[in-house]
Specification:
This protein has 381 residues and is α/β, with parallel strands linked by helices. It has a single domain, classed as Aldolase class I (TIM Barrel, Alpha-Beta Barrel), CATH 3.20.20.70. It is 55% helix and 10% strand. An 8-stranded parallel sheet has the order 1-8-7-6-5-4-3-2. The longest helix is centred in the last third of the chain and has 35 residues, at 336-370. It starts with a helix and ends in an 11-residue tail after the last helix. The model is unreliable at 373-381 (pLDDT under 50).
Length: 381
């Protein structure tokens, strides 16, 4: 038994890996992590960009693909293969949990973040192409994405809602899930247990942006006591999100859905590696442990938790302090709604940039492999 096993067995939190690499699928690293207690995998365009650009394990397949199809289609073929292989590694976890865990996530193209109908089409296509019960398709929680989330749930498709930065948007995501389940029932479904969802609430990025604003406000003459709130906003807001989760997934409305097999939409703590070296390496792990949650961690954070993580329920501790911290931030001129808007825009832009850069790299590689392009000789211009 490891601390990852303890996390799930004793506190009801599922530790997931926030990375996916083909070499780890081939050399057994992912399987070893699952043996250590990892219960799911998340990916995003940035993760795939790093994997494909950083190793040669894709080159042979890529060369054969671009000989007969466009570069972007070749990219998706490679992604689908990796996701399919990862799903196989996690399938025993999924089966042993009765369908409650063992998921692998793949994200729709980042260019669709503000295209609701396009997101629906892409999410549906991924689910139909990778027809596995432990697949989660990731849809960003943009204004345009929320209706797409509801539509996919109403079709009985499992969704990982990503890029959530505010309590207001999180509440809208929960409503999309609940109303989607209700629509699925109304369409004639009798058993809702085959639909799964997580709501990915991003954590460390909140502190990065709030800390920046605190320091700027103090530099402009705000009360220096604001500095006491550095490093506290993210955990405070996540604990408030967990309280909202417990409230929304209770009462007659939820009980009616649960009676038909519905599963709660678990909060997933994302972006949990510590960005500020002055903060503890498990600042966003040890503080957010509780039932019916997921924490998705990069490998360095997983190693740290295996080494010195503390397994104890903390996610609903000190809620009065969390409320007081967010109130003090507001009184000090730190607008958390604007923070969320900024972070959402940055997150969408970052994933889009990673995707575009990767495609540019792949197109250049395709030109070299197929002879469509000839590199300039030294001194040519």
């Amino acid at each position: 038994m490891t601390t990852l096993d303890d996390l799930y067995q004793h506190q009801g939190q599922s530790p997931w890996l926030d990375n996916l690499r083909r070499d780890w699928l081939r050399d057994g690293t992912l399987a070893q992590l699952v043996d250590q207690g990892i219960r799911g995998v998340t990916s995003n365009p940035t993760i795939f960009a790093k994997a494909i650009e950083g190793q040669d394990t894709y080159d042979e397949q890529f060369a054969s693909l671009v000989a007969v199809e466009p570069v972007e289609q070749a990219y998706w073929d490679m992604v689908v293969d990796d996701i399919t292989d990862a799903l196989a590694v996690l399938r025993p976890v999924h089966d042993a949990s009765g369908g409650a865990d063992g998921f692998v996530s793949v994200e729709v193209a980042p260019s669709l973040a503000h295209d609701g109908p396009g997101t629906e089409t892409a999410a549906r296509a991924l689910h139909e192409r990778i027809h596995q019960p432990n697949l989660l398709v990731k849809i960003p929680a943009t204004v345009e994405g929320v209706p797409a989330i509801r539509s996919m749930i109403a079709e009985g498709r499992s969704i990982n809602v990503t890029l959530i930065f505010s309590l207001q948007r999180y509440d809208e995501v929960i409503e999309a899930y609940l109303s989607g389940l209700e629509a699925l029932l109304a369409s004639g479904a009798e058993d809702l247990s085959g639909v799964a969802s997580v709501a990915s609430f991003f954590v460390s990025r909140v502190d990065t942006e709030v800390d920046r604003r605190i320091e700027a406000a103090v530099a402009d003459g705000a009360d220096t006591s604001l500095l006491e709130l550095r490093g506290r906003a993210a955990v405070a807001q996540a604990r408030q999100a967990y309280r909202l989760f417990r409230q929304r997934f209770s009462g007659p409305r939820w009980e009616a859905l649960a009676a038909r097999g519905a599963r709660v939409q678990r909060p997933l703590w994302a972006s949990t590696s510590t960005k500020n070296p002055a903060y503890p390496d498990l600042a966003y792990v040890d503080t957010l442990i509780g039932p019916d949650t997921v924490n998705t961690m990069p490998e360095g954070t997983i190693a740290a938790f295996l080494d010195h993580g503390t397994v104890a329920r903390t996610v609903d501790e000190a809620l009065d302090e969390a409320d007081a911290a967010t109130e003090r931030l507001g009184a000090g001129g730190i607008d958390l709604a604007d923070v969320a808007t900024t972070l959402e825009a940055e997150g969408v832009a970052s994933f889009a940039a990673s995707f575009d850069d990767l495609l540019a790299t792949l197109r250049a590689k395709a030109d070299r492999l197929t002879g469509r392009g000839t590199p300039l000789a030294a001194g040519d211009a």
